[in-house]
Amino acid sequence: MEDDLANLNLNDQEDDPVTGQEEDDEGEYEFQFCLIGRVLKESLVHFTSLRNVLSELWHPIERVTISKIEEKRILFCFYNKIDLKSMLDSILWFFNQHLIIFHKLKRGDDPLQVPLHYMNFWVQIHDLPLDQYWKDTVKVFAPFGYCWVFKKFSLDGISL
């Protein structure tokens, strides 16, 4: 066996050269399925723990690459739009009870310069009187952004 390995020569076979993927200029860009984020915490976050925990919790179809680009900025790259949408629609935006603020990168965004000050929230209000649904609720929450009011009525345990 040692003689076979000693006589091994890679130049004996002619292989086609490996070519890289061509860049597609038709709407493809580097950060198409990427988010930039930061954990709202005064002290530094243990990056390895964050990467392992979030990649396990999100269960992407393909995978997610989580990279530290600054002390408080983290780049989350998904490899398809389904994984990205699934993550954005989930409520797993916390790490060790600290909120993670995300921003979806758009064409031309610099991941180091994107402001990370805002986050969308879903707020559920329970046991709101029926006459308070529209006017007062919209007046209170509309200044903060979008306001959706869903009515759910219950008659003897039957939801309508």
From TrEMBL:
DUF4283 domain ranges (all copies): 30-107
Ranges of compositional bias, category Acidic residues: 12-23
Region (Disordered): 1-23
Record's protein name: DUF4283 domain-containing protein
